[in-house]
Amino acid sequence: MGQISRRSVLTSAAAGGAVAWLSSTTTATASSPLEQPRTAPVQADGHDPVTLRWLERSVPAELAAGTTWGVPWPAGSFAADQEFSLTTESGQDVPVQSWPTGWWPDGSVKWTAHAVSGTAARSESYRLAAGAAAKPDAALNVHSGRDQITVNTGVIEVVFPRKGGLLIKSIRRGGTVIAENGHLIASRQDKPSTDPSPVVKTESFTGIVSAVTVEQDGPVRAVIKVEGKHKKARRAWLPFVVRFYLYAGSDGIRTVHNFVFDGDEKKDFINGLGVRFGVPMRGELHDRHVRLAGQDQGVLSEAVRGLTGLRRDPGAAVRAAQHEGKATPDPSTWDSRVTSRLQYIPAFGDYSLRQLNAHGFEIHKRTKPGHSWIRVDGGKRAEGLGYVGSPTGGLAFGMRNFWQLHPTELEIAGAAGATAQVTVWMWSPRANAMDLRFYHDGMGQDTYPEQLEGLEITYEDYEPGFGTPYGVARTTEMTFWALEATPTAERFASLAEANSTPPLLVSSPEHNHSAKIFGSWSPVDRSAPAKAEIEDKLQAIHRYHREQVDQRSWYGFWDYGDIMHNYDGDRHTWSYDVGGHAWDNSELSTDLWLWYHYLRTGDASAFRFAEAMTRHTGEVDMYHIGKYQGLGTRHGVMHWGDSAKQVRISNAGYKRIFYFLTADERVGDVLHDLVDADRSFLVLDPVRKIREGDPFEPEPKAMPVGTTTDWGSLAMAWLTEWERHGKTIARTKLVNGATTIAAMPNGWVQSGAITYDLADGKFTGPTEPSVYIGSLSSVFGLIEVMTEVVELVDDENVRKQWLMFCRLYNATKDEQRRATGSDWGNLNLRQAYSRATAYAAHQLDDDTLALRAWKELRTGHAGYPADHDFTSRRVEGPDVLNPVDEARFSANASAQFGLAAIQCLALVGDKA
């Protein structure tokens, strides 16, 4: 395969970037505003076929409408217009849609995305190869009219109005309207549920559409993006983006809903947030069916008017048909003692499955409003799928991570009438209202000195007004199926499983590694005892933190996806209530560690763990609108509570791997928005509490942006945008930043009056050598991004200065003085920086440095030394509330040990 030289990188970049987005309607980016000029055609070498397998390894019975995944390619393999074919392991052609999502700087494709429909032939493995793609039997069709957009999958037709109060006007199957009037609903109250008040005012809002965009239009997959705000009278708030994914030949619609909180947390307590559809009801009440998924393939199968369990038996055939969801036999064949008294059998038109916590759900039903609910049944963790309809068709509706994102609810109302209303409640109105207020009153920390004192005791960086949720967001995934008939219990259980864990195709760790993506990592290797020992430790810390999620019940609408930071051994619990020791919020690159663990292992549980964290940290832990837009919040008791708002937390590197593996458009939006995160330095001084001298007055041409933690986080966003062929300024700032930092006498450890130009990303600093270095400088992705940047930017000085940094961080003071004029002080986190030493060893082919790297890793300074106990012990009552496993791990140490060990294995594994 062709290998890119640094010289060719610079030449192609100077020529204007790389190949433009394809104009074909088969690409998701045909109408992208991020187009760049075309360059000369790429001379591609091609690549052997790639084997794909299902992430969970088992062949799924159902897909969530369809599935979309990403595959990386070595530089020089394919041009952007390359077609791909997909076949099963037996050689059967599978219709597939393919498009590029990332490029190498020479214009060859770095990442491609691929989509297949839920009707695709099932196989344990597939073969993805260069070649013409098979076409679907009935190509998906998108028609854009003046007032609406219509998508026809060949099985269902979905109409999206361009404006107004409806997301979806109708979903038809054949000539039958399965669902209609799909819209968003939200409600608020002016006081919290937990503070008793004689008068509580409530308001209800409807989502009003302001824009509808066709982001992709077939032939296998279409993506419709709907934007707007929730409105009532003069108030418009809670901006939303909802994407609908439709696949050729499929009756499913995958939905990704995102909203941003832009209210006043002291007045706006959300007490309901949902998506609602009308489902026309047909047939007699006894032929109208309700299905609700429980746990472990459990299914509640009922009819609006039940014919089983009566005092008089309508007949075995009647009972069996109703229970199985089929049309009942002609009533003339029933026992007349039943048919003459049907009007006296209660018709239960309303159902509610309520998952108000992670450990229990209940199902209730009632005949109609104004009458009591009766309890049906309950269980632990519902999979989050419901259905209402008849043998002539109905709607299945579900929410992913249903119990993990509690309080949630699936509701059916009015099934005994002409039209049932089904609602997927992302926040159930039966729960307490959402309370986003800060958790304490400041405790007198009104000045910077007082706040710094508070930091010394609880590690919470408090500041009045900074603990605001204004601008944080949440994404929820849903699936809807327009079914031709009431599904069997077996099929309904399969649909529930697809809704809960959408099947995903993946390429192997070996192929992904061969593509040379994401820097320094390698597949799991237990070929030598020393390597096996490290692999065992990596597996132990990953398993421990993953299992802690369930043992500690780290679930809930705003919490799911994060883990805790520090452990309190006295209470045998994580420090959930102790300032900066509580939620992790990506501190020291936990996200990166989890993603690299997946890349190495290909393990499904590792992917799902990292996926949940990406969804959380990319939404809840960062600001999407407002004055802090583009910034994340440092770790704390509340995800948005700490006053340290930083780009190191909103870091694009923590989301980038998920984006390329899945082509997820929502995460793509977040990555694109982060390109301009450097503008946040105009409105917030990161060092305001310790700044000396004149008050901070931002100057766009001379901003106080750090060259390590700050720049490394920004560089990840620019690198990703450059890969995706987005804004050209991203590449400009990335290259300018790297080269101007390297041009300073001591590069990434230069101290003094260093300033940053917002316009072009250049740094200006002293011409005389001096040194300043912080221990956190490279533990928020700088090492990882520079591993890639050095190979992509044709500047020998960048390489030399970065190697100096990596070689000297853990070197002796004498070595540091000889190279930079002074020693670097008493540095921390030396185990974490063993990977910097390993990088220098690999680049310089220096065995002495390689051995030093392993010694640094095993010494374990500020981490886990070789003799650290990597096992856990069981703690049970009465010492703890619930039985738990306890180990001597922290999120910081685990993340940095994990990243260091992974990169040492990849770079100097032969010296282990």
From TrEMBL:
Domain PcRGLX/YetA-like N-terminal RIFT barrel: 49-130
Lineage start: Bacteria, Bacillati, Actinomycetota, Actinomycetes, Kitasatosporales
Residues in PcRGLX/YetA-like central beta-sandwich domain copies: 141-496
PANTHER family referenced in this protein's UniProt entry, alphabetically: CONCANAVALIN A-LIKE LECTIN/GLUCANASE (PTHR40081), TAT PATHWAY SIGNAL SEQUENCE DOMAIN PROTEIN (PTHR40081:SF1)
Stored InterPro entries: PcRGLX/YetA-like, PcRGLX/YetA_2nd, PcRGLX/YetA_3rd, PcRGLX_1st, TAT_signal
Domain PcRGLX/YetA-like C-terminal alpha/alpha toroid: 502-911
Top-level taxon of origin: Bacteria
Signal sequence extent: 1-30
Keywords: Signal
Protein's recorded name: Tat pathway signal sequence domain protein
